[in-house]
Design the sequence.
């Protein structure tokens, strides 16, 4: 089962990804982790990435796709994988589709955790206030202004990914505002049905 988990910062992707990994036995692939591993291993695409980063430049979509392509060939990803933090743009989604097609693969599903932006911001503001009230330092991710910036970046770059996959009939929307266990029950039920369908192909 090959899937992407979508949702803005604070939607609970990390929590649900960890449960999917445990329940279905497929790895969560983070582009940042894959990039560091490829550089450390000195793979051809890792060496290209290192040269780009050493020059102070951003790694291109082509290089990131190359790293994803290498990673999904590893034994633990043969049964499937969860892509985390990728694709972030339509161009990356197109490149991912093309790379998978060359390998005779397709994505099985894209799960989007739908959340209310205003409620998310309120939660972060309250959490920051409670942290300060305890005399503790507010984590960078819990700083309301940093959070709003991350949310704006998601809306600018990544929010278009959901309609892209919806148009291809692969998107499943799940209400991410409910309690964590309720969200998980729906995620698990959805993926269990899909897993059974994939197994019969």
Sequence:
């Amino acid at each position: 089962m090959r899937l992407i988990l979508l949702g803005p910062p604070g939607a609970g992707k990390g929590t649900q990804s960890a449960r999917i990994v445990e329940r279905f036995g497929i790895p969560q692939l983070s582009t940042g982790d894959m990039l560091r591993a490829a550089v450390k291993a000195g793979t051809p695409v890792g060496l290209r990435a290192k040269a780009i980063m050493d020059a102070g430049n951003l790694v291109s979509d082509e290089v990131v796709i190359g790293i994803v392509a290498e990673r999904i060939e590893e034994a633990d990803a043969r049964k499937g994988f969860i892509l985390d933090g990728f694709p972030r743009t339509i161009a990356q989604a197109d490149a991912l589709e093309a790379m998978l097609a060359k390998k005779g693969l397709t994505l099985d599903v894209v799960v989007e955790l739908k959340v209310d932006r205003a409620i998310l911001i309120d939660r972060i503001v309250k959490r920051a206030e409670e942290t300060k009230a305890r005399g503790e330092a507010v984590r960078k991710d819990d700083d309301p202004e940093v959070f709003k910036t991350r949310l704006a970046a998601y809306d600018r770059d990544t929010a278009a990914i959901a309609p892209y996959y919806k148009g291809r009939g692969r998107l499943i929307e799940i209400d991410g505002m409910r309690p964590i266990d309720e969200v998980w029950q729906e995620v698990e039920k959805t993926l269990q049905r899909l897993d059974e369908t994939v197994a019969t192909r």
Observations:
- The chain has a mean pLDDT of 89.
- The longest helix spans residues 180-199.
